[in-house]
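ARCHIVE CARD
SHELF: 3
SLOT: left
DATA:
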Amino acid sequence: MIELYEYRYLLRNLISRDLKVRYKRSVLGFLWAMVNPLLTMAVMAAVFTSLFRFRVPNYPAYLLSGLLLWRLFSGGTTVAMASVLSSADLSKKVFVPPSVFVAASVGSALLNLLFALVPLLLLVTILGVSPRFSWLFLPIPILEVALLTFGVGLAIASLAVFFADIVDIYEVILSAFFYLTPIIYPIAILPDTLLTFEAFNPMYHLVDWFRRALIDGQLPSVVDAILTSFGVVVIATLGWSSFTRLSDRFPYSY
């Protein structure tokens, strides 16, 4: 982790470059980071409430809050997976720790989420949810999702250097993970056989933490918060250790 601090200025420039390139030819520019999640939420809310008739209070806010954290995870890990290979030419010219490119991918996804928090807070206000003390704790699940994204991103980025098939495999896994995680539906509709999976699913716990703090003004118990945080740290540590163990072999596989 020390190397990320030592290369913090490069990291900042990589994140800035990524955002500029992404919105360079767009009329709305950075506003798309706020508009896109809203449009996605509106379409999905209309479809799922009419087809499945979910009985979830403040469902638009429930859906959007889940989608924002999911986009951080899915977008961050997907870009991180290709970040080491896409930066191979730069790495051949000057030494840059490959973890910096993974961190930049996650940082860019995190900034996009921060932009999207503006319409989310406006939406919950329109729905009659007033600011509350629990909102002070919203950064915690956000940062933990970012850390989870970084850990998973490190693991799959190292695999992608050696196995090109991981890109297609991860796409399938990510789609399955999305539908298995209560992002667009309430956990109450799941059968008992899947509840065990959710008990060990850090994304579910972090999304639920964020939603309860934002909409219901509730916080998880200390035990639940510690267990969830511990699981995230374990995954991030495993991702970091596997990445550092394989990174010395990266130059021979570009």
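SLOT: right
DATA:
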Amino acid sequence: MLNLRREALLTLKPYEATIGDFPVKLDANESPFDFPREMKERALKILKETPFNRYPGKIVKEVQELLARFSGVSEDMLVLGNGCDEIIQMILLGFGVSRKAVIPVPTFSMYKIAALVTGAQPVEIPLTPGFRLNTREILARAKDKAGVIFICNPNNPTGNLFPYEDIETILEGTRFLVAVDEAYWDFGPTTALKLMEKYERLVVLRTLSKSFGLAGLRIGYAIARPEVAREIQKVRQPYNMDSLSLSVAKVALENPSYREAFIRFISNERERVYRGLSAMKGVIPFESRTNFILFRTEYPARLVWERLKDRGVIVRDFSSLPLLEGCLRVTIGAEEENNAFLIALREVLTELERGRCS
């Protein structure tokens, strides 16, 4: 049976999320706060009036209208997806099969995985040591007539924001479609949308998983020129959005004030955690425009990760990636979670320092 599989699958492994009941879970860039109860009740009211034996109908249009208003674009510029992962696959199916998918790394791992799955040719371009885009090398590898370039901005897992002048340089210098993933844009906040009027080959990806706190419902969307959005729609699966996700999205977009309060909270806590990390000997945090912080430790990152895990704190280890030796990523959580993380990390570092000195 295995000899029937495509060659691209040989290097892939099924995605596995961290499983376990950890008191402090700060590894997946999720919101620490659940959807407000009163808003859940509103969504359930919509759902109770929704026939389960029918595919989603008018609510798709309603959510598109709300998203268009929220994003400041027209409805024909939107493509809804079952999370941004599906949007990434749609873009590759429409514009990347048998073509290059240029990916600045380190970045979100799904770009390369989706490229391999869809039959595109992933081309990884290392960031500079300061986590900047190597625009010259990107353009040198994007000279074909067509292909896709993925840019995560702000970038995951480094947390930094690439200057939009660099993105415009790339748009000017290639004929490739440029997909800017703005999953974390609202923690910045800044956006590439301002470039779309000038460049038809630009697509912006967004999600309701982060600032809206709806990671469990998988709601992503793309913003593109109408003519580009129509091409992406051609590879979209029919009825790809379910009634539950759409019902919750409708309520969330009708009541955006809770999101704004959450963004303010995360921004304040991010600065507090950054200061806490900066005060620790042997730790170098990197400035972030997201809901997480990447930091480097002078001790083996995997060892630090394991000692934190032993204390009930789970973060993400990125130390095996180029440019990220010794690096871990921590999601900004609730205040008590952030306190627990800082206390645990301080204990781990003290423990390791004593072991080194003994």
